[in-house]
UniProtKB/TrEMBL annotation:
<dbReference type="Pfam" id="PF00271">
    <property type="entry name" value="Helicase_C"/>
</dbReference>
<dbReference type="Pfam" id="PF22982">
    <property type="entry name" value="WHD_HRQ1"/>
</dbReference>
<dbReference type="GO" id="GO:0006289">
    <property type="term" value="P:nucleotide-excision repair"/>
</dbReference>
<dbReference type="GO" id="GO:0043138">
    <property type="term" value="F:3'-5' DNA helicase activity"/>
</dbReference>
<keyword id="KW-0378">Hydrolase</keyword>
<feature type="domain" description="Helicase ATP-binding">
    <location>
        <begin position="39"/>
        <end position="225"/>
    </location>
</feature>
<dbReference type="InterPro" id="IPR055227">
    <property type="entry name" value="HRQ1_WHD"/>
</dbReference>
<dbReference type="Pfam" id="PF00270">
    <property type="entry name" value="DEAD"/>
</dbReference>
<dbReference type="GO" id="GO:0036297">
    <property type="term" value="P:interstrand cross-link repair"/>
</dbReference>
<dbReference type="InterPro" id="IPR001650">
    <property type="entry name" value="Helicase_C-like"/>
</dbReference>
<dbReference type="GO" id="GO:0003676">
    <property type="term" value="F:nucleic acid binding"/>
</dbReference>
<dbReference type="InterPro" id="IPR027417">
    <property type="entry name" value="P-loop_NTPase"/>
</dbReference>
<keyword id="KW-0547">Nucleotide-binding</keyword>
<dbReference type="InterPro" id="IPR022307">
    <property type="entry name" value="Helicase_put_actinobac"/>
</dbReference>
<dbReference type="GO" id="GO:0005524">
    <property type="term" value="F:ATP binding"/>
</dbReference>
<dbReference type="InterPro" id="IPR014001">
    <property type="entry name" value="Helicase_ATP-bd"/>
</dbReference>
<keyword id="KW-0067">ATP-binding</keyword>
């Protein structure tokens, strides 16, 4: 990807000369055109989203008007006449931004007082932040649980709130994005109560329809600045497909070398060549494993310091561990880092030479965000996408145009999801009694929910207002990260030491009894999962295998919202109830992935009401596709797996955000049926996106199966890593004929 020249402008004259002087003192003479445009909108009182590439200076675009406003305010009698709020999706990014602001605003003296306010902020500092800080950096979780419920203590801050910055706003998608959209509406409601009307400044990676996405998130009209005028060094982007091995996996399918092993090799080589590299990995366990393998391999070389210059970085670490790793990366002490997306967002990792991406990160937006971390000083850089043994990764390795010639995705979120909206209406009522004037703010789905909230004794109507009736905190009803329940604490059994946490919904699959858990390069075995006390007891061990949970799933249709005929077949969208139970786990050899054995588990089933897209086939369709009763279950099952694998190309989701079921004779449809559903209560918009892009989605699914070089199906096309039936039965050729028959009858508008 060739280098690009930059284009300069001048700062709007309404920005204070002291702020411009501070920016120049930081070595920035003139702004890029997009920075000046975004600042102009902010100064005009218009909410604006700046959607340009990584390292294009988005931070400066919103900091210039923010610092200017804070400087105006510092001349007020109490020294705080204007305030600003900065929201980041992660604690690490908020801490990083505070460092950047302190450095930039140093010439302005005490006029700008930035402070981080999150779960790590010591109690003794919190009162100072509320009273004196004029730029508060926090995250949506703290805004939801800590600031909004305590708004009387924040009244002087909220009264003076001029700007709200929402950084990395493309990350607010799916259920998490829907929750954050409601948190933002609650913030706007309280600001209005205190007489403030803040301007929202949003920063996003390059995105499709950034203004529309930002407007859905804030509930306000938003201007868009999307022409990136910053220069860029040359980027060499490699698509790397691991080779097939001599090994065979489930049902004798050929097995590729794992993306984890390939990434560890590449990271080792790059560190040996003194190349500063970050390897982005999908899972916490993967990050730990890559760091561990690279360290072991580097220990074989004469330079004994090299293993110490490689580390892992992921969520779930304690705050002091995270800060120490960030500092080591900044200083160059670390040469190689295996990181989860906790590091993807905005943290200024300057001076990187290369980025390794272990498996497609789920969206093109994320891919470019990660690749853009290399070459941040304008030099040339290297990015390598290492394909996993997965239908989507294989499809992309063989269809580079799907990455390089396509725009990034639209951000999918649904603030009207009743499972999201209801708890936020309760939280809003606890902050200030709800009235009919609030319905325009919370959207058309708000008023119809109130009778059910009254019936559940959560809200009580008095006169024209609704009040929160309980003693407990209303904010605790909504877990905005979508975890559904309190996080499970991972505790070392022998010492009682807390190692970290895992989301409640992931606990059944990741910390069940017998699971292998990695932390800071050390391996632990889970001895007991206590669901009542939300604790997993572990002890250090060194097993030669990893573990993968297996589950069973049943599905029933609650209602059908839309149906489209595809010849005699039908495509549907509506509400379903999914019953899921983790029943066993597999032990797999490290590096090769070979299955060593299966162990049964006794865990309770869990029910989920959500949204789904499904298609049904008739006898005529089965005859056309030559699907006999013997091969029909395998053909449906294979098509379901591949469709789940390819949906992330069309909706901003991950294959782990969605699930599927295929049944030769479903009791509700009385026909062969394939379901793909959102893995979140109330849905997240992913299945709906699949319904509306069904023709392109299923065409890519068919192509992914057809282009795979295996004979009878493998993890690169129709096998799934999370299949509850051990990938049995599967029928590759039957799935191809089934999808061809469906697509031949698809209407042009599908």
């Amino acid at each position: 990807m060739p280098a690009r020249q930059g284009s300069h402008a001048v700062w709007p004259d309404r920005i204070r000369s002291e702020v411009i002087a501070a920016i120049e003192a930081a070595g920035i003479k003139d702004p890029w055109t997009h920075q000046a445009q975004a600042a102009e909108h902010a100064l005009d009182g218009e909410s604006v989203v700046i959607a340009t590439g990584t390292a294009s200076g988005k931070s400066l675009a919103y900091l210039a008007p923010v610092l200017s406003a804070l400087l105006d305010g510092s001349e007020a009698p109490n020294g705080r006449g204007a305030t600003a709020l900065y929201l980041a999706p992660t604690k690490a990014l908020a801490a990083d931004q505070r460092r950047a602001v302190k450095s930039l605003a140093a010439p302005l003296g005490n006029a700008v007082r930035p402070a981080v306010y999150d779960g790590d902020t010591p109690v003794e500092e919190r009162e100072w932040v509320r009273q004196y800080a004029n730029l508060v950096l926090t995250n949506p979780d703290m805004l939801h649980r800590g600031i909004l419920p305590s708004h009387p203590r924040w009244s002087s801050f909220l009264k003076a709130l001029r700007y709200v910055v929402i950084d990395e706003c493309h990350t607010y998608r799916g259920v998490f994005g829907s929750h954050v959209a409601q948190v933002v509406r609650r913030l706007r409601r309280l600001c209005e109560r205190y007489g403030a009307n803040p301007v929202f400044l949003l920063a996003s990676a390059t995105a499709a329809e950034p203004a529309a996405s930002a407007s859905r998130l804030t509930g306000l009209p938003v201007k868009e600045v999307a022409d990136d005028a910053s220069p860029r060094g040359e980027l060499v982007f490699a698509l790397w497909e691991p080779p097939l091995t001599e090994l065979h996996g489930e049902n004798n399918a050929p097995v590729r070398r794992t993306a984890t092993a390939e990434t560890a090799d590449l990271l080792t080589d790059l560190v040996l060549h003194n190349t500063r590299t970050v390897a982005f990995v999908r899972s916490r366990r993967g990050a730990e494993l890559i760091s561990l393998i690279a360290k072991e391999r580097l220990a074989d070389y004469s330079d004994r310091t090299l293993p110490r210059r490689v580390a892992a970085y992921r969520g779930g670490y304690l705050p002091e561990e995270r800060r120490a790793l960030e500092a080591a990366l900044h200083s160059g002490e670390l040469l190689g880092l295996a990181a989860t997306t906790a590091l993807e967002l905005g943290i200024d990792v300057s001076g990187l030479d290369a980025v390794l991406i272990a498996g497609y990160p789920g969206t093109r937006a994320s891919l470019w965000q990660q690749a853009g971390r290399a070459g941040r000083s304008g030099d040339g850089a290297l990015a390598i996408l290492i394909a996993r043994d997965d239908p989507l990764d294989t499809y992309l390795a063989h269809h580079p145009e799907a990455l390089f010639d396509q725009p990034v995705e639209s951000t999918v979120l649904d603030p009207d999801n009743p499972y999201v909206l209801a708890p936020h209406l309760c939280a809003a009522a606890a902050e200030l009694p709800l009235t009919s004037s609030d319905f325009t703010l919370f959207g058309p789905a708000a008023e119809p929910l109130l009778p059910s909230l009254e019936a559940a004794n959560l809200l009580r109507r008095r006169g024209k207002s609704w009040y929160w009736t309980r003693r407990e905190r209303a904010a605790d009803l909504a877990d905005i990260r979508g975890g559904g329940g309190s996080p499970v604490q991972i505790v070392e059994e022998s010492t009682g030491r807390l190692l970290g946490t895992v989301d409640a919904e992931a606990a059944h699959t990741s910390v069940h009894e017998g699971a292998v858990h990695l932390h800071q390069g050390r391996t632990y075995l889970v001895r007991r999962l206590d669901l009542e006390d939300s604790a997993a007891l572990v002890e250090e061990a060194n097993p030669p295998y990893s573990t993968t949970a297996r589950d069973t799933t049943a599905i029933s249709i609650l209602s059908t919202d839309e149906t489209v005929p595809w010849g005699t077949a039908r495509l549907h969208y509506g509400s379903v109830e999914v019953t899921n139970q983790v029943v066993s786990f597999l032990r797999r050899k490290l590096v090769t992935g070979e299955v060593l054995g299966e162990t049964k588990l006794d865990l309770p089933p869990r029910k989920l009401r959500t949204r789904a897209v499904w298609w049904t086939l008739t006898e005529d369709d089965l005859d056309t596709a030559r699907l006999t009763p013997e091969i029909l279950p395998g053909a449906l099952h294979a098509a379901e797996h591949a469709a789940i694998g390819l949906l992330p190309l069309f909706a901003t989701c991950d294959r782990w955000d969605i699930g599927g079921v295929s049944i030769p004779l479903h009791p509700d449809t009385l026909l062969p049926t394939v379901f793909v559903y959102d893995g979140h209560p109330g849905g997240a918009g992913f299945a709906e996106r699949g319904f509306h892009t069904a023709r392109a989605w299923l065409a890519a699914t068919r192509e992914a199966i057809a282009s795979c070089e295996c004979d009878a199906g493998c993890p690169s096309c129709i096998q799934s890593p999370k299949c509850g039936n051990g990938n049995d039965p599967l029928h590759k050729r039957g799935a191809l004929r089934l999808l061809t028959t469906l697509l031949n009858a698809a209407p042009d508008s599908a």
